[in-house]
Amino acid sequence: MQDYRMIQVGFVIASIAGVFGVEPSFDVPVINVTVQEGDMAVLPCSVDFLGEHKVVWTDQWSTLLTLDDRRIIDDPRISIERPYTRDWNLHIRKALYGDRGQYTCQINTNPVKTKTVMLFVLVPSKIVDHLSTRDATAKEGETVTLVCNVTGVPTPEVTWYKLPNEGLQTRERLDLEPGIFSDIGACAYTLQQT
């Protein structure tokens, strides 16, 4: 019942605003949104006193995504959700790492009013098996290079352990300096018999 009264009050205020020429304004401060890859991203945009104005969402390349509650872009993952009449929340289902960046909610006032939301997409860490060392065999005294390629955002931290020899129960952590780094989080360690 209370939500219904709030909606009624909202309609009355919107009607009065239209009569007295009150300009639309954003109700929610600028925020950042962080989601895991594969989850739904909800980018909030709440507008007071919208009246006859229109709301659009654009991405960082100024691509028009939505107009009012209609999706313009040909991406079925994108929609506008309106839990309350003043809300114009952009939903991105199954967010991808490529979806990260700045999104803008705009009202077609003169000049245009904008509110930006930064979307950060985290990618779970994983080892890239086909680019990593599986097994290595060497003679005593030879140098061995072990490679572990990992992906993830933020870049994961890699820790190397020496498995216990027969009869021992604990593994030994190797505090080695990485030999190689690249954009996908590659690291190689060289073990040398001294």
Automatic annotation (TrEMBL):
PROSITE patterns for the chain: IG_LIKE
Taxonomic placement: Eukaryota, Metazoa, Spiralia, Lophotrochozoa, Mollusca
Sorted UniProt keywords: Disulfide bond, Immunoglobulin domain, Repeat, Signal
Record carries keyword Repeat: yes
Entry superkingdom: Eukaryota
Annotated InterPro entries: Ig-like_dom (IPR007110), Ig-like_dom_sf (IPR036179), Ig-like_fold (IPR013783), Ig_I-set (IPR013098), Ig_sub (IPR003599), Ig_sub2 (IPR003598), Neural/epithelial_adhesion (IPR051170)
Sequence ranges assigned to domain Ig-like in this UniProt record: 24-118, 124-162
Keyword Repeat assigned: yes
Protein name as catalogued: Ig-like domain-containing protein
GO cellular component: neuron projection
PANTHER family given in the database record: CTX-RELATED TYPE I TRANSMEMBRANE PROTEIN (PTHR12231), DPR-INTERACTING PROTEIN ETA, ISOFORM B-RELATED (PTHR12231:SF253)
Protein species of origin: Dreissena polymorpha
